Amino acid sequence: MAVYDIPLERRTIHGHFSRDLDPVVTVDPGDGVRFATLDAGWGLGPAPDLERPTERARFEPRDPDLDNGHPLVGPIEVRGARAGGTLTVTIDELRVGAYGFTGAGGWSSALNERLGVTTGEGHALLWRIDADSNLAQDQNGRCVELRPFLGVLGMPPPGPGIYPTGPPRVWGGNLDCTELVVGTTLYLPIPVDGALFSAGDGHARQGDGEVSGMAIEAPFERVRLTFGLLEDFPVSAPVAETPEAWIAFGLDEDLDEAAAAAIDAMLNLMGRELSVERKDALALASVAVDLRVTQLVNGVLGVHAVLRRDTIRSAQAE
């Protein structure tokens, strides 16, 4: 199987979703791609002085109407992908860049207003990142371990027009899920023929919920993804498989509805993987499934349900 390198240049970067964007590469199922990403603010980095992050170099030229979202690499066309099918995206490699930043306040959101941090200048943590030691250190000397993932992994809506990158959708996008690390396979319903998949928004680390609206936003030096198609695994919203667990996503402007959607998708998964009826699956889920807030800050809210593989075991295996 082939692995295609996508250069970081004007023709391969876009700041919106649209089915009308021309693909930058066409791959076969089983093929992979490699690329680097900008930071979420279109920064090229590394910043010359992390005490003044706004002075870092930024990617140009940019269209103010088309490039006001996350800088995404793609679209990547998958040969044979058909609307209504299932795309698989396996995350093979993620290497974060040398710097990152995390903001709080300075902008308005429902959560920030509730917390009283919307007025005045925002507060920023500025991070020096060492991918080899798997650590990030802020300007106050505090360190956290890295857990890198891409915030945006997805495809455009099926309708014509231009769509923002901010809200997550059933076809993926700005999921902002901390579980989508190396070794994970993401399953997505395909909205358009060819899939037209894009990715970006590197996060060096994030807590569930992304409560300030930012993770450690960082460029990635290297990303490698592998694509596949499935005919016997229909999904209506994102599902992920890690070495340790199954994950089902729910998305809605109402958190209760997002939670219900995540549980519904998990019950479907349990029926498939454990061969149990729906009521039995619901009872088991109440014992074995963890419900987590994915993010609260993208307009469309996210909840993910997690079923660890080692939680439910057969008595014969004991």
Q: Helices and strands in order, then pairings?
A:
Elements: E1 3-5, E2 13-14, E3 25-27, E4 32-37, E5 72-78, E6 86-96, E7 99-104, H1 110-115, E8 123-130, E9 135-138, E10 143-145, E11 149-154, E12 172-174, E13 185-189, E14 197-203, E15 220-230, E16 239-241, E17 245-252, H2 255-274, H3 278-288, E18 289-295, E19 301-308
Helix pairs in contact: 2-3
Keywords:
2 domains, about 325 residues, 9-stranded mixed sheet, globular, Jelly Rolls, 6-stranded mixed sheet
CATH topology-level name of the largest domain: Jelly Rolls
What percent strand? 25-35%
Largest sheet: spatial strand order:
1-4-15-6-13-16-17-19-18
* Rg (CA only): 19 Å
- The SS-based structural class is mainly beta
CATH architecture of the largest domain: Sandwich
Return residue spans where pLDDT drops below 50 for at least 5 consecutive residues. Answer: none
- Secondary-structure element order, N to C: EEEEEEEHEEEEEEEEEEHHEE
DSSP helix fraction: 10-25%
- The helix count comes to 3
CATH superfamily of the largest domain: Acetamidase/Formamidase-like domains
Return the average pLDDT rounded to an integer: 91
Instruction: Describe the sheet with the most strands.
Output: 9 strands, mixed
What is the total number of structural domains? 2
Large-scale geometry = globular
Distance between the terminal alpha carbons, to the nearest Å? 40 Å
